[in-house]
Specification:
Strand order of the largest sheet: 1-2
Largest sheet: 2 strands, antiparallel
Shape: globular
Order of helices and strands: HHHHEEHHHHHHH
C-alpha cells in the first residue's frame, strides 16, 4: 500500500479519474439511453465502441498522420458507427422490439461475436495506436505535477456531452417524444407518431455515443480486439448503479467508477482494479434499485 500520499498527488489523481469518467460516461450514457427507451440490453454496445476506435485510426491514417487527422477521426468514427447502427436497427432490431428481454439479450450477444470477427477480418489482430494532435500533446503543470493536455481536453468534452444529452432529452421534440415512448409507447403510437422511427433515432444516438467514446479513447490506449469486453462490463455496472435508463444516473455511476479506480491506483496500485467493483457492491447493498430513479 502506498504511503505518504501528498495532497498534490491526490488532487492530480482525482483529475485523472475525472478524465477517465468522461469516456465511461459517454459510452454508458448511450447504453442507458437505449435501455431506457427501447428496453434493449445492448451487449454489442462495447463492440461499437471498439469499432469507433478502429474507424478513428483508419480515418487518421487516410490523412497520412496529418495533425488534422485526429479531428477528422473524431467526426468520422461516431458517424460511421451511427451508420452501422442504422443498418442493424432498420434491418433487424425494428422487428424484435416486442420480443422477450432474454431473446434480445442473446441476439445482441450474437452481434457482439459477429462484430468481433468482422473487426479481425477488416483490421487484423495487430495492435494499433492513434496519436493526439500536437496541440493536445505534452503536459500542464498542476500542483507542481505533470497533467496530460489530452486529459484536460477530455475534462472539457465530458460536460459538453452531458449538456448536449440534457438538451436533447428535455428541450427537443425527438427527446420529449422518446421520453413519452419510454413511459407508454402504445399511447405515443395512438396519436399518430411513428414510434418505430423514434426508436431508430434513439438507437442511433446511443450508438453514436459509443463510437464517440471509442474515438476519444484511441489516443490513450492501444486499439485492439477485445477492448470491447472490459468497457461493456463497466458500462452495464455504471448503468445498474446509476439507475436503469437514467442519463444522470449514468453520470453519477461513471464518477464513482472512474474516481474509485483512480484513487485505487494511488492508494493500492496492486489491487486498483478491485476498488471500482467494491464501490459497486457497496452501492447495490444499500440502493439495489440504483442511486437515481430507474426508468426501465
Amino acid at each position: 500500500m502506498t504511503a505518504n500520499i501528498t495532497w498534490a498527488a491526490f488532487s492530480q489523481q482525482i483529475l485523472v479519474g475525472l478524465s477517465k469518467t468522461t469516456i465511461l460516461f459517454i459510452v454508458s450514457s448511450g447504453l442507458s439511453l437505449v435501455l431506457g427507451v427501447l428496453r434493449i440490453p445492448n451487449v454489442f454496445h462495447g463492440s461499437l465502441y471498439m469499432i469507433g476506435a478502429f474507424i478513428a485510426y483508419s480515418a487518421a491514417m487516410v490523412l497520412g498522420g496529418s495533425p488534422l487527422g485526429f479531428w477528422v477521426a473524431l467526426v468520422v468514427a461516431p458517424l460511421g458507427v451511427a451508420l452501422i447502427s442504422l443498418i442493424v436497427e432498420r434491418g433487424l432490431f425494428c422487428r424484435l422490439y416486442e420480443r422477450e428481454h432474454l431473446m434480445l439479450l442473446l441476439f445482441t450477444f450474437a452481434f457482439m461475436l459477429v462484430f468481433g470477427d468482422l473487426v479481425k477480418l477488416v483490421w487484423g489482430s495487430d495492435y494499433r495506436s492513434l496519436s493526439a494532435p500536437p496541440i493536445l500533446q505534452g503536459y500542464f503543470s498542476i500542483f507542481g505535477l505533470p497533467f496530460p493536455r489530452y486529459n484536460a481536453f477530455l475534462l472539457l468534452i465530458g460536460p459538453l456531452v452531458a449538456f448536449g444529452l440534457w438538451f436533447l432529452t428535455n428541450k427537443t421534440k425527438i427527446g420529449k417524444i422518446s421520453r413519452a415512448a419510454a413511459v407508454d409507447r402504445e399511447m405515443v403510437g395512438a396519436v399518430g407518431i411513428n414510434v418505430s422511427w423514434v426508436f431508430a433515432a434513439v438507437f442511433i444516438i446511443g450508438c453514436f455515443l459509443a463510437g464517440l467514446g471509442g474515438a476519444l479513447v484511441a489516443p490513450t490506449q492501444n486499439i485492439t480486439q477485445g477492448m470491447d469486453h472490459a468497457i461493456i462490463i463497466e458500462a452495464f455496472l455504471i448503468v445498474i448503479i446509476g439507475g436503469l435508463g437514467n442519463i444522470w444516473g449514468a453520470l453519477l455511476g461513471a464518477l464513482i467508477f472512474g474516481l474509485t479506480d483512480s484513487i485505487g491506483i494511488l492508494v493500492w496500485p496492486q489491487f486498483a482494479i478491485v476498488f471500482p467493483y467494491i464501490a459497486v457492491v457497496v452501492v447495490l447493498m444499500f440502493r439495489p434499485q440504483g442511486l437515481l430513479k430507474s426508468v426501465w
